[in-house]
């Protein structure tokens, strides 16, 4: 249930609380929010149900709970690695820490901590799906420099203005230019999520 | 963990997790679906599970549906357009029991539509998810049996063989004789098998507002068409794609524009053509439309 399960924020150092109250139903709702975001690039969806420790947004936490597990190495920047967020992810998802960016299935952090995008697995021509998914925590998904999006999922060019630094547009365009290779990027802020799959072209 | 998961199956069959599959399996399938959406038309391998039904009965579609269902969804299941055939009824009951979801036969009411080999006649809407059951996901498989080679052909966009196949149709039959599982080109990049839907339904794939997900259980592949994706049926300038047509109208509802099934009515060669989409046909008869062979419409059990 999107949003019904407002779990209390965990006390400092408490890695055990803040997970999905009902893993099957909350996980399904979280996946559908991410699926809708990925199928409609730039659309902002509500993604709730998780209460991770300070350091990542509730939306990023819910995304990891829904999708990460023992099969998906997660890369965290220095700010988060070894801290309460890493401990929380480890307890709730059992995801191993990625040996490096090039071994990551997921990478989680702020834009400036995660760039350059070319560091992550982008798949190979025979298996472009063997690529990383980046989960970028932002201050907000609106009010930043406007990007114009087009491609699959969009009936007409759409405007998306996440609070990204100006140079991010070029990095995302470069990622899209590698299609069908590339990484897929989810943007999270508070309990909101949006996504830019590699298939989305950026203009302007 | 198992205690949690069992508890959440309360609305359906108590002994099973919500929507039958365990959470780890669902996460694996969900990750495959997201990559499939990000690379339209590309076949993502996934670790298909044994399901409580035989291969060929929609195990791929069932796993995709199970990974997508939320408690709030309303599910429609069709088999060759019909809501009331064995395969459709048993899959619908399976999810009524294991996920406790509501089901419907009305295309417009459904949030998820699992289908075997048809796309409904009623236009799909934004927010709807179509889940296709796929027997052979690889469009090049009957031209090149080796997976290692077909992988390379997709990687290199080497689709000449498919055009040769369609050309040979023309040289032998005078027209492209492929009538179902008619290959499409997705966003100008990947050649994709649209599953064995009739070529009549191919135009409905192009620029659809709905999200299309394809699951092949035995072959362990998932692929997708996001909404508003460009989907072109392969053809030639001098032999453009033709979706086909009938000289007859539906004998029950009189529709001249829907996909028709031939029904044999006696031993003397008698036959009628009726809508393959049973929900569409019923809705038209309810609204007062009639065909050449129809009795006045009555509600079932009236």
TrEMBL record, chain A:
Keywords: Lyase
SUPFAM superfamilies, A to Z: PhnH-like
Top-level taxon: Bacteria
This protein's record includes keyword Transferase: no
GO MF, one example: lyase activity
UniProt protein name: Phosphonate C-P lyase system protein PhnH
Species for this entry: Paralimibaculum aggregatum
Automatic annotation (TrEMBL), chain B:
Enzyme Commission number(s): 4.7.1.1
Broad class of enzyme this protein falls into: lyase
One Pfam assignment: PhnJ
Highest rank taxon of the organism: Bacteria
Swiss-Prot/TrEMBL catalytic activity: alpha-D-ribose 1-methylphosphonate 5-phosphate + AH2 + S-adenosyl-L-methionine = alpha-D-ribose 1,2-cyclic phosphate 5-phosphate + methane + 5'-deoxyadenosine + L-methionine + A + H(+)
Keyword RNA-binding included in the entry's annotation: no
Keyword Lyase: yes
Keywords noted in UniProt: 4Fe-4S, Iron, Iron-sulfur, Lyase, Metal-binding, S-adenosyl-L-methionine
Protein family according to the UniProt entry: Belongs to the PhnJ family.
Function: Catalyzes the breakage of the C-P bond in alpha-D-ribose 1-methylphosphonate 5-phosphate (PRPn) forming alpha-D-ribose.
Protein name (Swiss-Prot/TrEMBL): Alpha-D-ribose 1-methylphosphonate 5-phosphate C-P lyase
């Amino acid at each position: 249930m999107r949003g019904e399960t407002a779990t209390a924020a965990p006390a400092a150092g408490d890695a055990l609380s803040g997970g999905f109250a009902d893993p099957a139903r909350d996980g399904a709702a979280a996946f559908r929010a991410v699926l809708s975001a990925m199928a409609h690039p730039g659309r902002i969806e509500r993604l709730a149900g998780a209460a991770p420790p300070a350091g990542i947004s509730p939306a990023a936490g819910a995304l990891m709970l829904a999708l990460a597990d023992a099969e998906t190495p997660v890369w965290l920047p220095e700010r988060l690695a070894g801290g309460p967020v890493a401990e929380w992810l480890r307890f709730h998802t059992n995801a191993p820490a990625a040996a490096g960016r090039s071994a990551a299935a997921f990478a989680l952090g702020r834009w400036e901590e995660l760039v350059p995008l070319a560091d992550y697995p982008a798949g190979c021509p025979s298996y472009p799906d063997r690529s990383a998914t980046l989960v970028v925590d932002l201050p907000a998904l609106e009010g930043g420099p406007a990007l114009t999006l087009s491609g699959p999922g969009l009936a007409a060019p759409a405007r998306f203005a996440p609070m990204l630094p100006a140079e991010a547009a070029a990095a995302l365009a470069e990622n899209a230019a590698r299609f069908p290779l590339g990484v897929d990027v989810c943007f999270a802020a508070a309990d909101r999520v949006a996504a830019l799959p590699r298939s989305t072209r950026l203009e302007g | 963990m198992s205690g949690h998961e069992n508890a959440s199956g309360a609305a359906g069959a108590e002994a099973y997790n919500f929507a039958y599959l365990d959470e780890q399996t669902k996460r694996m399938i969900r990750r495959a679906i997201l990559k499939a959406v990000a690379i339209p038309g590309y076949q993502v391998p996934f670790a298909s599970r044994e399901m409580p039904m035989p291969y060929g009965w929609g195990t791929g579609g069932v796993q995709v549906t199970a990974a997508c269902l939320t408690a709030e969804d309303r599910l429609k299941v069709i088999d060759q357009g019909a809501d009331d055939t064995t395969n459709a009824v048993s899959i619908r009951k399976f999810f009524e029991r294991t996920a406790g979801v509501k089901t419907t036969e009305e295309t417009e009411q459904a949030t998820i539509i699992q289908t075997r080999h048809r796309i409904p006649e009623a236009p799909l809407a934004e927010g709807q998810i179509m889940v296709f059951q796929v027997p052979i996901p690889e469009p090049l498989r009957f031209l090149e049996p080796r997976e290692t080679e077909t992988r390379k052909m997709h990687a290199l966009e080497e689709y000449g063989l498919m055009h040769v196949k369609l050309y040979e149709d023309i040289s032998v039959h005078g027209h492209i004789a492929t009538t179902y599982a008619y290959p499409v080109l997705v966003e100008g990049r990947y050649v994709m098998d649209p599953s064995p839907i009739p070529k009549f339904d191919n135009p409905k794939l192009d620029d659809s507002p709905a999200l299309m997900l394809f699951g092949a259980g035995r072959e362990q592949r998932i692929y997708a068409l996001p909404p508003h994706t460009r989907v072109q049926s392969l053809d030639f300038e001098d032999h453009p794609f033709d979706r086909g047509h009938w000289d007859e109208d539906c004998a029950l509802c009189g529709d001249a524009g829907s996909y028709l099934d031939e029904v044999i009515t006696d031993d003397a060669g008698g036959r009628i053509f009726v809508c393959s989409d049973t929900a569409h046909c019923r809705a038209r008869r309810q609204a007062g439309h009639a065909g050449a062979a129809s009795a006045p419409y009555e509600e079932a059990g009236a």
